[in-house]
Design goal:
This protein is mainly β and 455 residues long. Helices cover 0% and strands 38% of the residues. The protein has one domain (2-450): Neuraminidase (6 Propeller), CATH 2.120.10. The chain contains no helices and 31 strands. The strands form seven sheets. It has a seven-stranded antiparallel β-sheet, with no helix packed on it. Strands 4, 19, 21, 22, 23 and 24 form a six-stranded antiparallel β-sheet that branches. A five-stranded antiparallel β-sheet has the order 15-16-17-18-20, with no helix packed on it. The chain is globular. 53% of the residues are buried. It holds the Pfam family PhoX. It comes from Streptomyces lucensis JCM 4490.
Amino acid sequence: MSATRRQILSRASALGVGIAFTGALSELFAGTAAAHGPAGTGYGALVPDPDGLLDLPEGFRYRVLSREGDQLRSGEGPVPSNHDGMAAFAGEGGRTHLVRNHENRVTAKFQVPTVSGLTYDPAGKGGCTALTLDTRNRVLSERVAIAGTAVNCAGGRTPWGTWLTCEETEDRAGTNGYAKDHGFIFEVHPTDPHRTGAVPLTAMGRFQHEAIAIDPRNGTVYETEDAFLKPFGLFYRFRPNKPLGGVGSLRAGGRLQAMRVPGVPDLSTIQDPGAHFDGIEWVDVPDPLAVSTPTRLQDYGPAGITHAQKLEGCYWGGSCVYFVSSFARSADGSAADHYGQIWRFDPARRRLTLVIVFGPDTDVQLPGESPDNICLAPGGGLMVCEDGNGAQHVFGVTRKGEVYALARGRQNIGTAQQPEWGEFAGVTFAPDGRTMYVNCYTPGTTFAVTGPWRR
């Protein structure tokens, strides 16, 4: 399970960390093996790193796998900037394959190098790189997996072992020097990128994509739209013509639909955990390519459609899909204010339920309070990446809602020799659960963290 963007909003201080929410935290672990494992309250105090990169509890250690600006092992060019969403895949002989997003805009310092057969738009600086690691987390290879895309933020893995990388933009050709339209999803193979190439999955829509989750029973793909200002985003589902068809099957197209909650034009107005709505409707998106009108502004009939501000994280758990609205602000145009919501949609019952509401003590604008990516920890609980001001952390959250610091990044010195240390992102675990992989967004750095995870 993985998802992104402020799904657990926690507060850190010199004395510890805390969390404020109402609802059922156990919902986040639905249908997962880790839900039955231990869930302690942490691994002890963080020990300052003599090298000044990553503070960890006693017994843990890190290895730097890759740094922005260094040369890719493939010789294709420098390691690109802005490390973001990431997934780990099992390889032969205990090897691990990582696929890593690069959320590069046109201003990125190091673009994803263009490679023949793997480049969508030569003017796009984003994309993905792929690393292969041995059993000791030594880098065996590092190469371009897709190039020429833009603002590759999050995505999600498929049941057949590929990564869907999402463009969080809807820039058209001619904007920012782009030669092609952007705002698509692309499939990336972790070991043989040329099998998937750089083919936009156009039927899945052109909008500000954030994350996806796939129903492993029938192949339905759920998609979030991260729209910060009005008009706010929609929650979509894509019904492929070749469900669960394997690598490349999503190119066969399908039907893109948007969720309508009858009588609820804006999800921010719902504030009570446990509130649910039956008879959820799915309405065909008139023009998935958004040729003249963004998908969230198109005509969905007299009943309209349901919007929400900052729809980001999306993941599958048990028999339901979960998605996140990071926050809503009336000052931005939302119908009401909140500090984070997690929703559950049950396809079999056509029921939408508000599971968790965060805040108000977790205002995302306060320093140190904007966690980003999230994943399950092998010993139970969650790991979340902070995306705020000041020192950056990877937090652990137990099923009881207890929060502890697992890692702390270098302080933001901001000198020429020590550039400002950005947020953590892309947290994920090796298939055997023995290593946590995590990115520093800027300067782009990928870490492998080992230690007594099941302690």
